[in-house]
Amino acid sequence: MDKLTATKNLRLAQEIAKQVDIDERIIGAFASINRELFVPNGFKNSAYKLDALPIGAKQWISSPVTVAKMTQYLFLRNADSVLEIGCGSGYQAAILSKLVRRVCTIERIEPLLREATERFRTLGLHNIFAKAGDGQEGWSRYAPYDRILFSAAPSHIPQALIDQLVEGGIIIAPLQQGNAQIITRMVKEGNRLISTPIEACEFVPVVDGVER
Ligand code: SAH
Questions:
Q1: Residue 25 lies in a domain
Q2: For residue 70, what is the domain's CATH number?
Q3: Which end of the chain is more exposed for a tag (fewer CB within 10 A), N or C?
Q4: Domain count across the chain
């Protein structure tokens, strides 16, 4: 990153920190990932605003404030691996890659996944493993995970994902409940999830199957 771009991203991190109570490590992660690379051409000037942006295929790159919140809620301090459902632009995965040893991320829309994978390569983020698929099935190859993050809203948590989470592991998901979406923290105890609602939110829904 050149100096000007580094300054812009540091400033973005500081702006986020004014709105969300994130720790120093997370601020550092935001400062070290160039958000410009994750927004579509024509939106570069908006990359440093705290808004969600369209990324094509009727999908969105989440607001950096939302990414920050989800990251904070994951309690990553003693976590080694994270599985993300809904890679999208790859921005959330890139932030996570600075905070844990391994990030696995799944996207159901293949063209989006290809673009995200290209970004990870450009940035040298070699600890991100990304694949096209239906994230509701998880990714058994790298399981178990310490954390699972839904970047799209599910109506329930599939058993396959509970099976791929370590005992005591945490799932953060914007759970669809009727017309409302609530960011919810779920901790695995035995074969049960102990849920705590956190706050209302707006994510795109989890959709079944893969789109080529
Ligand atoms: N984390 C992304 C946010 C993308 S929006 C970012 O930082 O930009 C949510 C994404 O979830 C969309 O790209 C959507 O296609 C994807 N998605 C929805 N249902 C899915 C499923 N079942 N499996 C994998 N990805 C899914």
A1: no
A2: 3.40.50.150
A3: C
A4: 1
